[in-house]
Amino acid sequence: MPSYTWSPQVAMTSDEIDEFLRGKHVARVATIRPDGAIHMSPLWYHWDGKNIYLWLGNGERPRQHIRNLERNPNISVLIDRDVRPEVGSLEPGAQAVLIRGHGRLVTDRESQIEIGRKILTRLFGSEGEKYLQGALEDGRPGYNRVVVQVIPSKIVAWDFRKLARGW
């Protein structure tokens, strides 16, 4: 399902997308507020090779993205990496995966645990397990997470490291 950016030279293959999304990155997630404005925030995610999953708190302070998706399932997710400003050079280049699609809200206990565990272990290894129960509670007793299954309608991915060097 990947599609090209402005240049096929920098497009990622499906395997490259999978490898990139397994990294320790943060997603920037955009949904649509009731007034039509974009609501955007950084979130952790899980990629299963087909769909991306978000894990939103719905405990002490329910997240705006949940309310937005209940009304309008359109969602965009951007996962990117650009160290060029940090290293002071146009190399090594920027990488990104942009996913546009529809968000399906899932609230069952098993999905909350499974997706939470996958996200926390991807980011923190085996240490992630110790954060699971507190994160599931989200400020109040119980299982207070909403899993958002993002079903892609379009994926655009690029890796500027593929361009010839010598800027």
List the helices and strands and how they pair.
Layout: E1 2-3, H1 14-21, E2 27-32, E3 38-43, E4 45-47, E5 52-57, H2 64-71, E6 74-82, H3 84-87, E7 94-106, H4 109-124, H5 132-137, E8 145-159
Parallel strand pairs: 1-8
Antiparallel strand pairs: 2-3, 2-6, 4-5, 5-8, 6-7, 7-8
Give a written overview of the molecule.
- The chain has helices at residues 14-21, 64-71, 84-87, 109-124, 132-137, and strands at residues 2-3, 27-32, 38-43, 45-47, 52-57, 74-82, 94-106, 145-159.
- The longest helix is centred in the last third of the chain and has 16 residues, at 109-124.
- By secondary structure, it is of the alpha+beta class.
- A hairpin with a 5-residue loop joins strand 2 and strand 3 (38-43).
- The chain is globular, with a radius of gyration of 17 Å.
- The protein contains five helices and eight strands.
- Strands 1, 2, 3, 4, 5, 6, 7 and 8 form an eight-stranded mixed sheet that branches.
- Helices cover 25% and strands 36% of the residues.
List its salient traits:
25% helix, 8-stranded mixed beta sheet, globular, single chain, 36% strand, Pnp Oxidase, Chain A, 167 residues, alpha+beta
Quick one: biggest sheet?
A: 8 strands, mixed
* Secondary-structure element pattern, one letter each: EHEEEEHEHEHHE
Mean pLDDT: 91
Q: How far is the first residue's CA from the last residue's CA?
A: 31 Å
Low-confidence stretches: none
CATH hierarchy, class: Mainly Beta
Number of strands: 8
CATH architecture grouping: Roll
Brief sketch in words of this structure:
With 167 residues, the protein is of the alpha+beta class. The protein has 5 helices and 8 strands; from the N terminus they run E-H-E-E-E-E-H-E-H-E-H-H-E.
